[in-house]
Design brief:
Helix content: 25-40%
Number of strands: 13
CATH class of the largest domain: Alpha Beta
Strand content: 15-25%
CATH superfamily of the largest domain: Glycogen Phosphorylase B
Order of helices and strands: EHEEHHHHEHEHEHEEHEHEHEHEHEHHH
Distance between the termini: 15 Å
Number of domains: 2
Structural class: alpha/beta
Radius of gyration: 21 Å
Length: about 425
Amino acid sequence: MKKVLFLTFFWPPSGKATLHWPLKIIKYLPESGWKPSVLTVNEDTFSAKDESLLNEVAPDLEVMKTGYFDPFTFYRKFLGKSQDEPLIASETISKTNKSLKHRISIWIRMNLFVPDARIGWYPGAVARAKEYLRENKVDAIVSIGPPHSTHLIGKKLSSIYGIPHVPVLIDPWVDIVYYRDFKRNFLTLALDNYFEKSVMKQAGRVVFVTNNTREDFVRKYPFLKDKSHVLYWGYNEDSFEGLQEKPSPSEKILLHAGNIFDYQNQVPFWQTVKKQVEKGNNIRLKFLGTVGPQIKKSLEELGLSSRVEYSGFLPYGEVVREMLRASYLLVCATEPRHLPGKLFEYLRTGRPIIAFGDDNREVEDILRQTNAGMLFPYNSPAAEFFEKAESLKTDVEKVRRFDRRTIARDLSKILDSVIG
């Protein structure tokens, strides 16, 4: 059986959504003749933990862990937080927080960590991988980013041992949306662009999880045209097996799962929700994950606080159940290249989806092809959604093509091609 080494910063018991793609792909790859092993970190100190995900790791999967320099340890101290106090993603990059400490921490994050705050993993990961590769034959290396510093580890190992490297970009790199509206100095940008281009150039193949992102990178680096692929984020069919949850007949839950940031604040739509409530439509808003402070403030100012529930982080299995209990599902596509991972779980539930995104043809096409929902611009009140929601009947058979078992087979073909 051919062997592939996966490099991924996030791994159970981390509850980071980014790990779901490699976790399931790794589970199914042996069905296509590839035996995976994993190199990760000892602990993800930023994300909430989901111990239930440990059950998804095969007992015979070789998982190596390394220590690393963790800047978030010092970040907590700088802000006066205890070391076990959770960090909230939407608050760490909030633009509404004007405190001096917050602004200093943002500047440091944007300008001193290149390509990202996890670059401290690089030395330990390269050293541990060298030990492993000296004793084990590996046919390919797959790196998962973000954090994109993981791709630099893959590139280094590929250059030392001549093993084909396949970076998987779940998000864009240099202009990832997290950097929106934040300034990065010239030297930082120049170095980050250099890192990005060097990884793209040396890679045997490059995988993107959205077609729009691939097209954007091909425009930037034409040499990627013939060696890049799209494997969608997808969902886990087995996560839905045996679940019978249904929406409540007495109230309609409008659910958002995952982090929602202040730049995704849908004030015109919140106003529409308020009008629906005033008409007697018993709608309640439910947020799973972190919520930007400006969004909470907007909902409070509209008098919707009594109809909002902030559930915080939940284990993945419970998130799926909450999706099935909802009447409507909300998703925000931040930019044209953004295809939110939660969209695919949403699709599988069969519940009507309301999506916001400016000029996001990819989200719009998927919703239209599956008859699962509607996409609106960010400034739209989207009142039409509530008029047409009942007519949206998702074609689940078309959704099943996004099952990660199928995507794992597609990745195996890419790995087969890269080793020639």
